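Build the 3D complex.
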Amino acid sequence: MDDVELKRELERAHADCFGWAMACCRRDRDDAEEVLQTVYLTVLDGRARYNGRSSFRTWLFGVIRLTAASERRKAWLRGLLLERESGKRDGGGGKREAGILAPDSFPAPDAEVELESRRQSLGHSLAQLAARQREVLQLVFYHDLTVDEAATVMRISVGSARTHYARGKARLATLLGNSREL
Amino acid sequence: MTMDDNELRRQFTELREADKDRAPAFAQIYGRARTRASLRRTPRVRPLVLAAAAVVVIAALSLAYGRSSTPSTTTPAIATWRAPTDVLLQTPGSELLGVMPALSKSILDEMIPTPSNKGT
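Done.
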């Protein structure tokens, strides 16, 4: 695949990739942008090569997932070093803890408020799931991948992916039902 | 209360639509990645430049060493060469040792002037 074709494919998948990067970065927009940028760099550098064994989007999602995991590890190490240096532990979880979208600064109409509330509720419920359950549900329901394709992205067996999918779906339904009842 | 697949899908679709609206432009992210890629390429050139410079320096040094080690054409032959410290071997009175002494004469005659010597 030459540079022009690669750029076209990346552009076509961009919005989808951003959504997946958001999911991999616990819905932190800045982190998602950083991860996406690193992924494009990795692809441009040729350190990640598409070999045609799966669809381009599935392959790219796999690269995003690995990059996000790597960035998370780096951030964790940086945090550890900073913590050690300052000698005191940061009490608050900060912006990462809940994984909820930041509310808009201006008042929205009622429908928008309700929509935003639903999105927040979904984000909050997803944050409570195990990582693999969250990933497989995101890939299937958000990105319309099959469970088999999700397994390829997550580098797990189809059987495992199906288990995570079934358990995750049941738990998410319960969580969303509970949040609605509240 | 349970939730069916369609309801879940609907909620995820809402989330996707919201993300789509908030997604940064492709050109922006791609442009930044390109800039980073070009910055990364620069250090790869540096080792090459350094290696080339090292090769040039080594070649120059070996050339200079080679020239200094070749024998000069002006070097004197060992038969005609005289050590600079030879002058120290010339002691006072050493000319007396260079002539054969005669039995009828005293060596002092050579050294101390006599009236017969003066006349000559």
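Residues 92-104 of chain A have pLDDT under 50 and may be disordered.
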